Amino acid sequence: MEAEEMELFGIWSSPYVLRVIWALNIKKIKYKYIEEDLNNKSNLLLHYNPVYKKVPVLVYKGKPICESMIIVEFIEETWKNDSIFPKDPYEKAKARFLAKFVEDKLSPPMWRFFTTKGKDQEEAYESFTDYLAILERELEGKEFFGGENIGFVDILLGCMSYVVPIYEEITDFEIITKEKFPLLHAWMQAFLSSDIVRDNLPPRDELLYRYRKIREAFLSKDN
Amino acid sequence: MGEGELKLLGMWASPYVIRVRIVLNQKGLKYEYFEEDLTNKSELLLKCNPIHKKVPVLIHNDRPICESSVILQYIDEAWSESGPSVLPTDPYEHAMARFWAVYIDDKMRSTLLGILGATTEEAKAVKITEAMSMLELLEEAFKKCSKGKPFFGGDTIGFLDVTLGSSLTWFKTIENLSEQKLLDETKFPELVEWAERFLSADCAKEVMPEVQKIEEYITVLKARSAAAAVASSK
């Protein structure tokens, strides 16, 4: 396949875009990457994603697919090499359930934790650490949620591996430590050092700067 | 793969449960149905869905599957040889069906409940405009997905049909209560015809609740939340 058959519209800092990049890497698919400016969205992006006007958008043979989870499943169904999902329907259902749990339950309190302080921050912390405990149990006996290899849940959760250390640095809070969540801690290291992820991470310094600004903006809104 | 014992934990008014029941009917699958009292959840529900404690839960040979979209995909894959496909087999059409289903689930509930719960005419008007925009998009989506066939899924009811169709009674109820026609045949002719076909399909007919029952249920819910508000303000 020529790289021109596959285009990915994204922004450098989006964890949702990275999910798609990691999935494309697992499948060894070549693609052309187009960096969008979200303050000045291209006509192509607006044409391909008129409903949400967001990234990522994957365009394969001229047809757009939107929403990162849907894009990853599309990639899995279209390319049969290097499976992202288990074969067994029940195991697949468990992976989809856990992925939805990460998306719907885990992300909001983590974001609340990062964008608040004091009592609000403490409550958000309590919420998401309960959810982290669920993920810790899921990792028992496994290196990755997908087993020996990175799978769907790993891809969905993956941004946590580089965002959590940034949150920890900015808020001065310990979130995922070897003592509190040994399996999750080990998972983060394994994920970050894997072939498909290692060279496809946003630059740390720039992310640190960006997230600091985000936190400052939220905290100053409350004052 | 697709044999064994099936149980479904559900609640009669929930569109998420209704969509699973329609698909089970479509596939010709027999199952034991357990009606949950959501104010007094059963041990079985709490054991099978400890994280969310919600319905629907499908239990296949004692193994629980939760979340309606996950359940529908599971049914499709585990019983791929029985009955029509729930999701399109073409990966791109599959992605389109999933995309619109996510859109409907994101927008439908909040828009409809927004119309119902609006305390001012202005607030209600905003939500009604949202509902109209949503229906415009879905009218176009129907044309693209159905390609001239009766349903979003083509010849038979599929994933996207049940995702939208399972809310049709709520839709009608809210139209009545807010005195506002939403699914207007002059504006959305294809969707209106699709809705009639959906509601008269064998697999859907016996599972869709009646408008009056939903109206009564809304009254119960309002009374419950008013009582809770009074209790928490003491």
Give your account of this protein's structure.
The complex is a heterodimer of chains A (223) and B (234). By secondary structure, chain A is α+β, with helices and mostly antiparallel strands. Chain A has ten helices and four strands. Chain A has helices at residues 15-26, 43-48, 68-78, 89-115, 118-138, 152-157, 160-171, 182-192, 195-198, 204-222; strands at residues 6-10, 32-35, 57-60, 63-66. Chain A has a four-stranded mixed beta sheet with strand order 2-1-3-4, with helices on one face. The model of chain A has no long low-confidence stretch (mean pLDDT 94). The model of chain B has no long low-confidence stretch (mean pLDDT 94). Chain B is globular, with a radius of gyration of 18 Å. Chain B is 59% helix and 7% strand. With 234 residues, chain B is an alpha+beta fold. Chain B has a four-stranded mixed beta sheet with strand order 2-1-3-4, with helices on one face. Chain B contains ten helices and four strands. Classes of the chains: A alpha+beta (223), B alpha+beta (234). At the A-B interface, strand 4, helix 3 and helix 4 of A face strand 4, helix 3 and helix 4 of B.
Oligomeric state of the chains present here? heterodimer
Strand content of chain A: 5-15%
Strand line-up across the major sheet of chain A: 2-1-3-4
Radius of gyration of chain A: 18 Å
Question: How many helical stretches of chain A?
Answer: 10
Helix-strand category of chain B: alpha+beta
Count every beta strand of chain A, where a strand is a DSSP E run of 2 or more residues.
4
Instruction: Sketch the topology of chain A as an H/E string, one letter per element.
Output: EHEHEEHHHHHHHH
What are the secondary-structure elements of chain B, in order, as H or E?
EHEHEEHHHHHHHH
Shape annotation of chain B:
globular
Largest interface: A-B, 22 and 23 residues
Helix content of chain B: 55-70%
Largest sheet geometry of chain B: 4 strands, mixed
Percent helix of chain A, as a range, is 55-70%
Say how many strands of chain B there are.
4
Structural class of chain A: alpha+beta
Unreliable stretches of chain B: none
The low-confidence parts of chain A are none
What is the first-to-last residue Cα distance of chain B? 55 Å
Q: How many helices of chain B does DSSP assign?
A: 10
